[in-house]
Amino acid sequence: IAHIGTDGSTASDRVEREGYGALVVRENILSRWSLDASGAFEQWWNSREHRENMMADDITAMALAVTCNPETGQYYYTQLLAQPFVEVDSFARTSSLMGYLDSARMRSQRRPLRPSRALMDYATDLAHHVVRNGQLPRDTAPQYSFETIYIAAVGTSFGAEGTFDYLMESHSQALLDSSFTEIGVGVCSDSNSKVHWHVVILAKPHLGASDVGVGSAHDKQSYAGMPPLFSSQRK
Predict the structure, then answer these.
(1) What end-to-end distance do the CA atoms of the chain give, in Å?
(2) Which residues, 6+ apart, have CB-to-CB distance to 233 below 8 Å?
(3) Is CATH 3.40.33.10 what the domain over 90-205 is classified as, yes or no?
(4) What is the pLDDT of residues 26-44, one digit of tens each?
(5) Which among 113, 94, 106 has a CA at the least distance from the CA of 163?
(6) Which residues pair with residue 77 across a beta bridge?
């Protein structure tokens, strides 16, 4: 038995495939000729590597499963240990943030931005990536058809209003640009739930494009000569 699946997947890949968001994933596996929970635990406990997985400080959740090969009678045990993403009221945070932005745009005689489900989903994926890796990925072109795009990631311990004010300090030109018509916002908290990372995506889609557009990396353009990515943190 091995930690790499027959399809080449890792434990983290399989957990993510099931829709479970986690910062850390550890896996213990073993095979035995008997259905014996205490014996399986003892076997793991007597192995330094497996014991360290179970006792790791970054683990807060666990799942255990056992199955039997009917042809051989051999039992296989799998223990998954993880640190899940901290649940935050992302709907309330994103709604409030977009509300502040719409108000600012109307004061500047700009139209409100239309929330895009495709961009919202992608912004959420990017927020999780930032929490897990500490930065935005290098390739940030979503499967979405657009002419221009601007992506900003900020980490704060503020509420929605404070986060919006912080965004405006560095991104007011883009946030108030009348050429952008759609928006996606994603939120994810760090493991201590102290810093909330917000990813804001502003976009102008191609004419006739919809939320299920099929853009590519070749569609991406920098905004007004500025880098399309920006990441910062303030507590």
Answers:
(1) 46
(2) 154, 155, 156, 195
(3) yes
(4) 999 998 888 888 888 999 9
(5) 94
(6) 30, 66
pLDDT digit string, tens, across residues 93-107: 778 888 899 999 999
In words, the CATH class of domain 11-84 is: alpha beta
φ/ψ of 54, rounded to 5, equals -70, -30
Q: Which structure tokens are listed for 193?
A: 């739930």
Model's pTM, two decimal places? 0.55
Specify which residues 86 forms β-bridges with.
189
Ramachandran sector of residue 158 (left: φ over 0; alpha: ψ -120 to 50; beta: rest):
beta
For the chain, the domains span 11-84, 90-205
**CA nearest to 180, candidates 218, 140, 211, 223:** 223
Instruction: Residue 103: count other Cβ atoms within 10 Å of its Cβ.
Output: 12
